[in-house]
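Task 17 of the worksheet. Students: predict the tertiary structure of the chain below and write it out as structure tokens. Keep your answer in the requested format; marks are given for formatting as well as content.
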Amino acid sequence: MSAPALTKTVDPDDMAGYLTARVIGQEVVARQLARGVCRRMAQERRGKPVFTVLLSGPTGTGKTEMAKAVA
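Model answer:
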């Protein structure tokens, strides 16, 4: 699956599908991240970060891979 296209708006279902394909076993987190990013991109925020998130958990749960996929 390819990365979602860079547009003004992002479809949360497309983004969640992409994240789920990249990080196995984190479907709930992928869906929540996609919804949050899409909600923030709908707002006018010139010059500010789109979204900030803190990923925490035990070793080997996919935190780094999820961050890479979102970036």
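Marker's comment: The chain has a mean pLDDT of 86. DSSP finds three helices and no strands in the chain.
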